[in-house]
Amino acid sequence: MADQATAQEFDILVLGGGSGGYATALRAVQLGFTVGLVEKAKLGGTCLHNGCIPTKALLHSAELADHARDSAKYGVNVTLDSIDMSAVNAYKDGIIAGKFKGLQGLIKSKGITVIEGEGKLQGNNTVVVNGTSYTGKNIVLATGSYSRSLPGLEIGGKVITSDQALTMDYIPKSAIVLGGGVIGVEFASVWKSFGVDVTIIEGLPSLVPNEDAAIVKNLERAFKKRGIKFTTGIFFQGVEQNDDGVKVTLVDGQTFEADLLLVAVGRGPVTANLGYEEAGITIDRGFVITNERLHTGVGNIYAVGDIVPGVQLAHRGYQQGIFVAEEIAGLNPAIVEDINIPKVTYCEPEIATVGYTEKAAKEKFGEDQVQTQEFNLAGNGKSSILGTGGIVKLVRQKDGPVVGIHMIGSRMGEQIGEAQLIVNWEAYPEDVAQLVHAHPTQNESLGEAHLALAGKALHG
């Protein structure tokens, strides 16, 4: 084989170096394949550079601001003087830089050839980068997503997306967040903690509309208590901006004014002008359509991550990358089903869910074939110590396994690990009820909820 640095033929050629792409590459070299990884910007993609990692860093700074504000009730007298955005950004950027350096070192140490530049698919087995052709016996498309806007809504000036919000060097006095999904509620949460007057506008009937109704109710109540304003069920009409700020109009004529508008209406797939359609790949509203084994139906071309319809989560792309590498190796890996992928929304309070909502379970198994159980965190010692409320809600098939777990409360994202094992291993409440949960932890709330669902509730 030619020298790695100049090699232009690979067993697997991956287009995109984000969570899905680099996971494909790492698993593939582990399985003995030669791998070329094409990346136009930076390894790590959206998640590392302008998604999961930077937003969580901001949310940690926000948590510390809230702690300072509320410290007196815990007997600690500190005051919140100010938020220094340049220091917040330096902390955030330091985390990213460290992880980026680690990832670069890992990719290099495994002998993966990184091809820098924008790649374009040409035919079934070729990717052209900066005029040079590279071939792969197998090709994996992992080109990721971008911050979407609405038709006719121009991004610019005081109308921004999460990309600009993550690099802001000042704190606005007021902000309107268009979109009450995951990205919208996380930014609203950060800004409120930083002292911003925040209003969320969501056209659907509730905030976080994909969550279980009990979670929605809890989040909306918590946001009201925090002073985060929101309007739901009325769609956005338009925005005007001038030197003073923005004026947003809804379809019913209501208007809202603020310093800036954050457009958080979701992320769109990066698939345009990359040669996908010309190669015969099926594209629907920008997404790459695959079979359940992530094959595109063309040659040996697969697709992973945010360009494949479904939940847009870094860990889904990562898992799909591993899956495709194993699929190419003929290992026949188990299919990764979206419904069983854990999801965390890191606003305050945090939301952590896996599996079916009550509504979805009833649609799938039948109205009278579903049982639910709620455990209130008011009965949990550690949650009381932390000063948080919230719930754990279980959804089970009648006389069958637990098919959904939905949690809300400060730090409850950390409980998703056991929750996803319960759902993915199709555990019965009785199986979990006999396991010992350490005291005092928030993790106990999961144990207590399963005890209750098994008919052995000791608390509540």
Automatic annotation (TrEMBL):
S-S bridge residues: 47-52
Transmembrane segments: none
Reactions listed under catalytic activity: N(6)-[(R)-dihydrolipoyl]-L-lysyl-[protein] + NAD(+) = N(6)-[(R)-lipoyl]-L-lysyl-[protein] + NADH + H(+)
Annotated ranges, domain FAD/NAD(P)-binding: 10-321
UniProt keyword terms in alphabetical order: Cytoplasm, Disulfide bond, FAD, Flavoprotein, NAD, Nucleotide-binding, Oxidoreductase, Redox-active center
PROSITE patterns: PYRIDINE_REDOX_1 (PS00076)
Positions that bind FAD: 56, 119, 143-145, 306
Location, primary (coarse class): cytoplasm
Compartments in which it is found: Cytoplasm
Residues involved in NAD(+) binding: 179-186, 202, 266
A molecular function GO annotation: flavin adenine dinucleotide binding
Enzyme Commission identifier(s): 1.8.1.4
GO CC annotations on file: cytoplasm
Cofactor, free-text remark: Binds 1 FAD per subunit.
Listed GO biological process terms: 2-oxoglutarate metabolic process
Family label: Belongs to the class-I pyridine nucleotide-disulfide oxidoreductase family.
Note, other: The active site is a redox-active disulfide bond.
Protein name, per record: Dihydrolipoyl dehydrogenase
The species this protein was found in: Paenarthrobacter aurescens
Gene name of the encoded protein: pdhD
